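#random but structural
TW: two for the price of one
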Amino acid sequence: MEMPLGLKQLLSYQSAWLRGDILAGLTVAAYLIPQCMAYGELAGVQPVAGLWAILPAMVIYTLLGSSPQLSVGPESTTAVMTAVAIAPLATPGGSDYAILAALLALLVGGIYILGYLTRLGFLADLLSKPILIGYMAGVAVIMMAGQLSKVSGVPTDADTVLGEIQAFVTHLSQYHGPTLILSLAVLVFLFVVQARWPNAPGPLLAVLLATVAVNVLRLDQLGVAVVGNIPAGLPQLNIPNLSMNEVTPLMAAAIGIAVVGYSDNVLTARAFATRNGYKIDANQELLALGAVNIGAGLMQGFPISSSGSRTVLGNALGNKTQLFSLVAMVTVVGVLLFMRPVLSLFPQAALGALVIYAATRLIEMSEFVRLLRFRSTEFALAVITTLGVLATDLLVGIAIAISLSVVDLFARVARPHDAVLGQVLGLAGWHDIDDWDDATTIPGLVIYRYDAPICFANVENFKRRAMAAIEAEQERVEWFVLNTEAIAEIDITAADMLVELHQELCNQGIVFALARVKQDLYSQLKRSGLRDLIGNERIYPTLKTAIRGFEDRYRFK
């Protein structure tokens, strides 16, 4: 196994990188402390569990990750998916919730490791951009709905997003004034800081100021909830008891969390790799995520992935290596050891407001507009995915998202673009005659291009459209040349269909020829017997040689 880029950079560290890495590490730590506590609350465990989960993640990713800039740890999507998965299984108010969350992290880590061993990194590509945009918008709405009660004091006990929103509206008159005012103040502060000072640790400042307000104004005595007692010291390694009765129902959730967490991780890592001129290893990321989730599970945490917001912050401050994560980790350990009294006074309303703030940044309205302008079908995919997530739940939403991605891909392969090619005056090469009004073809010759590999999914579509191209010709067709530049391969169903097409064309006195045949396709033609059926002399490397073959046949008739 090649040494991961992050570790390689640490072993060849340059002093010029130190200032940026330390500054980024301290700032990211200030940002992540309230953020990870909020995500712990979002996941349904103790807020401090968000900090516990990040401790092994930072060290392990430094050693195994392929990105020198990615910030791993608790993040919104996996947190809310954890809550959705565990809520139906946990005893109401029972202590087994945290155990189930840790067990879920171990299962997610095991799935990542299995994916690494079987080299399944390519599966992240199944989630197309429209699907991810729609999915994240749905997640954001679920996040915000889940915090309505915490930021307002309005009871919203319901099993669905729509139920929570309906309960909030119905019982709005029961809001708790001090809690609502504090939440709104935190939200306004966060948006103002983001707009004016985007690199400032807004979440930390917001929660600290809210904590000061609670203490100065005695808001806790007025009913504003705070985090409360935090266990002393650091968490101990603990292996959750594995019971098949608990493992089995969590497996589907673990798979869903693994798919979404990995997709988000790889997309974020690739974005910064492209921006800063290095490469990441998608399969190595599976190993790193597997190890960090197992570490989180053993440290009584919950499933984690990577944080785009913390990665953006570190990049803006000039981090070059994963040393910034180690600096952040040391800072978090110091806070856990020496500042527990301050953490225990964090108001729940401020953490809820922080989750809502993070959720608003997941809804990219500009991307929805861009999809609509680009192609209406892609916009529809995004909207359907959002509605699917909201109408069902996150796990079903994942299945809907992946299914829509596969269906969209399948539709493009099953019904691709095709063209009859002709010449255009003053333009080199051969072009789709539908694109040019003055395009001309050679009488008696149809050059047909099908813009996808031919397989079982599109054989009938190919044959029907190929025959339609022949029938559309006003003069008698002597030759039908299939331009295979977009046909990298065929399957056995396609091979049998081409045999049928060859026979039908022969019955009509039409020569069937192939042009621009790649070596892989040529080998398949040979193995299937099509090369001998068509005739090696009718398989041409270029369109020019195919046209010359047609013209020579006419010349010697």
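TW: number two ↓
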Amino acid sequence: MIYVDPNILERVNRWLTPTFDTETQQTIKEMIAYDPEGLEDSFYKNLEFGTGGMRGIMGVGDNRINKFTLGKNTQGISNYLKKQFPNQPIKVTIAYDCRHNSKSLARLVADVFSANGIQVFLFSELRPTPELSFAVKYLQCQCGIVLTASHNPPEYNGYKVYWEDGGQLVPPQDGEIIAEINALKYSDIQFEANSALITLIDTEVDEAFAEASVKNGSFDTPQQMKDNLKIVFTPLHGTSITMIPKVLEMAGYKNVSVVAAQATPDGDFPTVTSPNPEEPEALRMAIELADETAADIVIGTDPDCDRLGIAVRDTNGKMTILNGNQAMVIKTYFLLEQWQKASKLNGKQFVASTIVSTPMVSKIAGNFGVHYKEGLTGFKWIAKMVKDFPELEFIGGGEESFGYMVGDFVRDKDAVTATLLACEIAAQKKASGSSLFRYLQEIYSRVGFHKEHLVSLVKKGKKGAEEISEIMKQLRSNPYDQIAGKKVLKIEDYQTGVAKNILGGTSEIMDIPKSNVLIYYTEDGSKIAARPSGTEPKIKFYISVHTSKNDEKALQQKIDAILLHLNIS
């Protein structure tokens, strides 16, 4: 006889009631008989909102993406919207990406909103996530939803929630909505659509978003410079094919080659192991095309078009991939140079990044006399800063995981405008006899030589979640006093909100929201952060080192020593 945990069995039995359709019930019965391990993983917990919304494997159960979990979320948000905006018309925008079931799930979400008397603007076809953020403000909606799982494997889908400013949910609002959702039963979901309240949208919003992207991402690059830049672009089977070629053409970039085998949206992502531009393999076909066409720059975006990977030619003419920190440094420095040339810097501007990203952004901001703001991992925190500091003008911000936001017309990472910005920089640098790669070296020489490294340990399922929890527990209960032979000077625990000065034996409270992140600082200036992912079954280790001179070997030796000491790779 197969043993099933009683608590899980209780959850399972709720799904074997008439509230759920016969197909769902039959699938569960088959799992009870033939897949008890899968059954346990499908029901042992509820899917939760993380740093990028809610993502999960599609299937039946409380821990899966399906019509009932998304329906319950949508019902809860509907109830919350009515409480927050009483006695006024409520409008919601919905978009979706290329993943399996995204279109049908987006329609289901629209149905539930409309059944609750809420006006819905539903994109007629797949669109980039940043366009959804833009559309929320453009259409003066109180809320926006995008069905996406970013760069997760094909079996995943997800649900990101945006508020009336175009930014993602942040505390305490996310907690209030979760409480509203948790108070519901699945039988409370109103699935019967009011079709009169659902309006399909496309061209008008597309044109407005494209024009705004060109306006924010262009910096007086002469047409001849644009004509001389050879670009290779790949959407990695995702949504960016609907917008990036259009924006580049509108901005005057005609020399664009698209990777044909990756141009068609496809939720199976057949040509890549992972549709994640953070992974070098994802840009392999684009780099091959760049070598065939003697291109200057490669751009690759993830499936929902909020992250972008960039490859450029090094001093030997070989294509090399910039990591997220390097790309962020280049864009931030260039933006500040442009603002300085235009005499627009007056001490009332700011740039932003995150606690696990390179310290270089802070140093660059200081060099230009611009404020620097730092938040937790996740672009929702950078978008929130625009609201939190209304007395300051937002120039741009990014994070190490390949996201960047130019200006505040979009309140999320935006690979469309960031792609145009990267091409503007590349075109100008090529025309001056330099390149993006050489420009990065110049920035290092001015700010300091830094190198970052990321290790992601994948730990799937319930067992993996327990392993990740144990790793973080050990790092807190048995903290390192030295790492790779260098004394630990400071430990920041964002879960407790306490920063400990190890040598001085003092502590201070950090004025920042709680998060499961631990950061070590050593005497040689190295920074090591540990953080479980909020949207993927991973624990991530972020390492940052620096030297006073250009010594790539010394930088890598520092990283290798830290990896060896932590026993990770």
